[in-house]
Amino acid sequence: MAPREHPHPDLHEVELVTVLAALAEPTRLRIVRMLAAMEERERAWKDIDLPIARSTLSHHLKILRNAGLLWSRTEGTRCFVSLRDKEMEGRFPGLLECVLACQDSVDVPMAKGGVREDRAAS
Amino acid sequence: MAPREHPHPDLHEVELVTVLAALAEPTRLRIVRMLAAMEERERAWKDIDLPIARSTLSHHLKILRNAGLLWSRTEGTRCFVSLRDKEMEGRFPGLLECVLACQDSVDVPMAKGGVREDRAAS
DNA sequence: GTCGTACTTCGATATTCGTCGAACATCGAA
DNA sequence: TTCGATGTTCGACGAATATCGAAGTACGAC
């Protein structure tokens, strides 16, 4: 289907385990990190370049959306996603921040523009 | 088997996804919260009172241990577990703290002493 | 209207995970 | 040494999950 307007949960109704489960998957964590590392606050669905099928990507984005982690916006037949980091900070203070700050093996080698070199290098 | 000395991972080798996955399960999150809410820093294995089989509990404790979240110590035939919160703070600054601080539906109604009333009430 | 693009949903599959009871291993006590 | 207590491991099971390709749906362009 075309990107029909998706339901976005009220963050007050999102449970911590849901958020943790959403983040506890390498591909999804990578997506979150990529969105956080961008200069623009939005990323075009089409430009999310990962070695997975598009249907799988759609699946992961849905899980992140249901966990309150990202916002998707429709523009014609296209879709743009962005982190709900401000809201998440209100609901789970410090969580997203420390997840993003942490250094581990899940990197952000996602081409097609938007990756900040300065962050990637630190 | 009796509580043979278990392997505890070096926290530098523990990945964020491993920790998140360990925490992203209601029973395990409950165990972590219970350990954090205790006055004594240790809890006897035997006194962890949850509505699950003992083999299941053993399984969950192993996952938490492998994620670097808890430490288990053997004393004769008994076992005592405690949070590795200080070390986790060094590896993933702020993570455990904000997970414990967050308010959601996973409570800590675990009897047999050790639950702090002041925390439970806040 | 017809076609193509852009996502989403469906159905199928393989893997992982939570759970249990039973069997096992280790220690202390009798 | 025999017994009981204490955890752990094993084997099995159903449920959940990550993945894909194919089919479907909505929109813009022509």
Please outline what is shown here.
Chain A has about 120 residues and is α+β, with helices and mostly antiparallel strands. Chain A has helices at about 15-25, 25-35, 55-65, 85-90, 95-100, 115-120; strands at about 45, 70-75, 80-85.
SSE topology:
Two copies of one chain form a homodimer.
Chain A: H1 16-23, H2 26-36, E1 43-44, H3 54-66, E2 70-75, E3 78-83, H4 85-91, H5 95-101, H6 117-121
Antiparallel strand pairs in A: 1-3, 2-3
Helix pairs in contact in A: 1-3
Chain B binds a DNA duplex (30 and 30 nucleotides) through residues 1-4, 25, 27, 45-46, 52-62, 76-79.
What does this structure look like?
The structure is a homodimer of 122-residue chains. With 122 residues, chain A is an alpha+beta fold. Chain A has a single domain, classed as Arc Repressor Mutant, subunit A, CATH 1.10.10. Helix content of chain A is 42%, strand content 11%. Chain A contains six helices and three strands, in the order ααβαββααα. Chain A has a three-stranded antiparallel β-sheet with strand order 1-3-2. The longest helix of chain A has 13 residues. Chain A is globular, with a radius of gyration of 14 Å. Chain A starts with 15 loop residues before the first helix and ends with a helix. The C terminus of chain A is likely disordered. The interface between A and B is medium-sized, with 22 and 22 residues. Chain B binds a DNA duplex (30 and 30 nucleotides) through helix 3.
